[in-house]
Write a structure and sequence with these properties.
254 residues; eight-stranded mixed beta sheet; 43% helix; globular
C-alpha cells in the first residue's frame, strides 16, 4: 500500500521542514522507498538533503512549467531509499499563475498520482503560510502530519489548520484527515506531558504522537552538513525520536 503524507506547520520555526526531511529518511531506514517533495520556494529540504549541491537540472517548478516531466525532475540522494523532488524560488512565480484558478489546487494531487506506485511513502513539505502552495500540498495528501512547536501556543495553530482541512474537504471533495501531531523542540518532556493534561487539549491529545522531538544541537549540525540527522548521528536524542515517529506512522498505516 502506498501512502501520501503532507507535513504542515502553521508558522515558521515549527520544525516542519526538519520533520519532513528526517521523517522521510527515518522511513527509509525502515526499508521504505520514499519520495520527499519540496513544495516550499525557500527550498529548505532541497538544501538540507544535499540535493541542491548536486546541481539538479530540473525541479518542481520545471514540471509545473512543462519544461520537464516528473521522473526527470526527481533527484537521487546519497541514501538509496530516499529521492527528492526539489524546489527553488522559481516555484513562487509559478504558484502566482496557478493560484488564479481554484481547480489548480489539485495539481499536486494529480502529479503524485502519476508516481505513487513507485514509492511506499511520498512526503510533501509545504510552506508555513496559508497560500496556494500550502493548500495544494495538503490537497495532495491521504493524511496530514501537523508539525507544531511544543514551546508555543500550538493548540490555536492546530485549530486554524483544521479550518484549512475543512476548506479542502468542502471545495475539492477530498476526505483529508489528520494522521497525527508531531510536537517539536521541547525543553522539558514533563512540562509537555503536564500541559497535555489541560482541558483545552480535549479532542487533540490522542492525536499527539508519543515520539516527541526534543531540542538537540545535533539537528543544527546535521542541517549545516546538508544531511538528515538520522544519517549524521543516529544515536542523538532527536534522531531516535524521529525513528520512533516513523515507526508509529508505519504501524498506523499497516
Amino acid at each position: 500500500m502506498n501512502h501520501i503524507l503532507t507535513i504542515s506547520g502553521p508558522r515558521g520555526g515549527s520544525g516542519k521542514s526538519v520533520t519532513a526531511l528526517n521523517l522521510s529518511a527515518s522511513l527509509g531506514l525502515y526499508k521504505k522507498k520514499v519520495l520527499l517533495v519540496d513544495c516550499d520556494p525557500l527550498g529548505s529540504v532541497s538544501e538540507w538533503s544535499g540535493v541542491r549541491s548536486m546541481d539538479y537540472p530540473f525541479d518542481l517548478a520545471s514540471v509545473l512549467n512543462g519544461k520537464a516531466n516528473l521522473i526527470e525532475a526527481v533527484s537521487k540522494t546519497e541514501f538509496s531509499s530516499l529521492d527528492v523532488l526539489p524546489a527553488g524560488f522559481d516555484l513562487f512565480a509559478v504558484s502566482l499563475k496557478l493560484s488564479r484558478a481554484v481547480a489548480n489546487e489539485k495539481i499536486f494531487r494529480l502529479l503524485m498520482d502519476e508516481i505513487r506506485g513507485d514509492y511506499d511513502f511520498i512526503v510533501l513539505d509545504c510552506p508555513s503560510s496559508w497560500g496556494f502552495l500550502s493548500i495544494a500540498a495538503m490537497t495532495a495528501a491521504d493524511r496530514l502530519v501537523a508539525a507544531m512547536s511544543a514551546n508555543t501556543g500550538w493548540v490555536g495553530d492546530f485549530h486554524v489548520l483544521l479550518e484549512s482541512i475543512q476548506y479542502i474537504r468542502q471545495t475539492h471533495g477530498i476526505d483529508l484527515k489528520v494522521a497525527g501531531i508531531s510536537l517539536n523542540r521541547y525543553d522539558s518532556i514533563d512540562e509537555v506531558l503536564d500541559g497535555l493534561d489541560h482541558d483545552r487539549f480535549t479532542g487533540t491529545r490522542e492525536l499527539v504522537y508519543d515520539s516527541m522531538i526534543p531540542c538537540d544541537r545535533a539537528v543544527d549540525e546535521a542541517v549545516s552538513r546538508k544531511m538528515p540527522l538520522v544519517l549524521y548521528d543516529v544515536n542523538s536524542p532527536a534522531a531516535q525520536a524521529y525513528l520512533g515517529l516513523a515507526r508509529e506512522i508505519i504501524l498506523a498505516f499497516n
